[in-house]
Amino acid sequence: MRLYAVVAAGGFRRYATYRVATAAGVFTNTVFGFIVAYTYIALWDERPQLGGYDLSQALTYVWLGQALMMTCAMMGGGFEDELIERIRTGDIAIDLYRPVDLQLWWLAGDVGRAAFHLLGRGIVPMVLGSLAFDLAMPASPLTWLAFLLAVTLGVIVSFAVRFLVALSAFWLMDGAGVMQICWLATLFFSGMMLPLNLFPGVLGEVARALPWSSLLQVPADILLGKHAGWDLLGVYAFQGGWALALLAVGRLLQSVATRRVVVQGG
Fold it and tell me: For an engineered disulfide with 170, which of 51, 186, 252, 257 has Cβ 3.0 to 4.6 Å away?
């Protein structure tokens, strides 16, 4: 486990070196946060308590979305592009020779990346948003800890989905198309476009049951106090269940892909 902790720390340092890119990302997230916030203000002015949120909670949801967009890699920007390229060029054979687990290696690096983005691109937009708007920030440290646990599980779910997408390159040789479909699904079903509570009928039920809801909707609702007690444990079980299931499928697909490389003489 020490090795994977070192890999995670390396992932954190790797993204910390891009200071200009981080500053540009903070600026972008802040600008989009203001645009979406004023859109929500107009919407909630017509429909107070829309989706079970008051205006303050809705605005908090907006800034949480900006804070978690890169943390959970909702629009990519994680390990997946590099892994797809290594599969395409055949360099993945080198990775398979390493005395480490391929899935855990990339997971550790992605956890380091997510930790940096949560701190580097998440805190500043949230602070600026709280200065400009009346946000519903919880006072209890336990709520924040519960939120961070949900974010951690969301990052693992996000990794598991993107790992599956990246492995598709073993068969497609170019995962760009699958990755773009994944981005669209993530933005829509995570609640990034609109809170999933606003989705009507069966669509809303299906959207909340899909793994992408673990990335934003679930952590946001925990921070906003929508889950507590046994309900909170149920939410964690939901996220953990999806994480384990997707990681298991990734493990199986990795095994099949590895045999494919061997058969091809890789």
Answer: 257
Considering only CA atoms, which of 183, 47, 167, 53 is closest in space to residue 106?
167
Two tokens, residue 180 = 């773009």
Q: Which amino acid is at 133?
A: F
**Which residues pair with residue 90 across a beta bridge?**
none
With beta carbons less than 8 A apart as the criterion, state whether 197 and 49 touch: no
User: Residue type at 218?
Assistant: V
DSSP character for 199? S
pLDDT tens, residue by residue, 196-207: 999 999 999 999
Residue 241: which residues within 8 A CB-CB, separation 6 or more? none
How much is the CA Rg of the chain, to the nearest whole Å?
Answer: 19
Contact 116, 17 (CB under 8 A): no
Query: Within 13 Å of residue 171, how many CA atoms lie on the same side as its CB?
Result: 11
pTM for this one?
0.93
Please give the Cα distance from 169 to 79 (Å, whole number).
14
What are the Cα distances from residue 160, in Å, to 80, 149, 200, 206, 244? 11, 17, 28, 20, 9
Helix axes 80-89, 141-167, angle to 10 degrees: 20
